[in-house]
Amino acid sequence: MAHGDLPPPEAWDGLLAAVRSGDQSAAASMVQFLYDHVLRIIRAHLPRATDEQDLAQDVFLKVFAKLDSFRGDQPFPHWVARITLNTCYDRLRHQRSRPEIRFADLSQDEADFLAASLASSDADAHSDHAPAEAHALIGKLLDTLNPTEQTVLRLLDLEQKSVREISEITGWGASKVKVTAMRARRKLNETLQRLESGLH
Fold first, then answer.
1. Biggest CA pair distance of the chain
2. Dihedral over alpha carbons 150, 123, 101, 188 (to 10 degrees)
3. Cα separation of 119 and 96, whole Å?
4. DSSP code, position 198
5. How far is Cα 44 from Cα 7, in angstroms, rounded to an integer?
6. Could you tell me the pTM of the whole model?
7. Any idea of the CA torsion for 28, 30, 31, 37, to the nearest 10 degrees?
8. C-alpha to C-alpha distance for 34 and 60, rounded to whole angstroms
9. Average confidence (pLDDT) per 10 residues, the chain, 200 residues
10. Based on the number of CB atoms within 10 Å of its own CB, is 6 exposed (0-12), middle (13-18) or buried (19 or more)?
11. The pLDDT of residue 4
């Protein structure tokens, strides 16, 4: 099995039974199988985290501490993903949030990309430089939102998950997810309008 590949669902039962019985080799295998899975989630929700290794360690400490509460009503990697997401969410809540983003906060490349995007509806016109600049700009815009809004938009728009999937991952009701997404998009739209005014 290649590094980072997850075992098939039927393989987890035996591995978890071994971990619960105190098999250290099985515990190490479980961490190895899940490590890339956990890091991907951390990087998606805390893209500027400099301590992602420490966060991953925190996640696995929680996984082992809560292992007896796993009842198998969902795939084990999904259960671990929920713990990882909640760990990221807790980190977001404890970080100092920026109340707004100003045009002066943008790098020249980001400002140029914003101006070009607003001036043209042709998505391919600036494709040579769009990914890095767009990623940086999206990160700065999302930083202006509260942790719940950031989490919902990353899952809904960036990871293309459904409202039902987000509800299952976060434990939040569908109505909360929908209302949060609507509120977050409205805030981002207002921010973009303010930034656009800075171009003139």
1. 66
2. -50
3. 33
4. T
5. 22
6. 0.67
7. 160
8. 9
9. 62 89 92 93 80 91 92 88 91 68 61 57 44 67 84 86 88 91 86 69
10. middle
11. 52
Q: Tell me 49's DSSP state.
A: -
Q: What is the pLDDT of residue 173?
A: 92
Measured between alpha carbons, how far is 151 from 146 in angstroms, rounded to an integer? Answer: 9
Domains of the chain (ranges; CATH) run 9-94 (1.10.1740.10), 103-197 (1.10.10.10)
pLDDT for the residue 121 = 44
What is the rounded CA–CA span in Å between residue 12 and residue 5? 13
Whole-number pLDDT of residue 168: 84
Among residues 87, 98, 68, 79, which one has the least CA distance to residue 34? 79
**Residue ranges of the alpha helices (H) in the chain?**
9-20, 24-45, 52-66, 76-94, 108-119, 130-143, 147-153, 163-170, 174-197
What is the residue-wise DSSP string for 75-131? Answer: -HHHHHHHHHHHHHHHHHHHSPPPS---GGGS-HHHHHHHHHHHH---TTTTTTTHH
Contact status, residue 183 vs residue 145, Cβ threshold 8 Å: no
Q: Please report, as a single letter, which amino acid is at residue 87.
A: T
Nearest CA among 19, 6, 13 for reference residue 67: 19
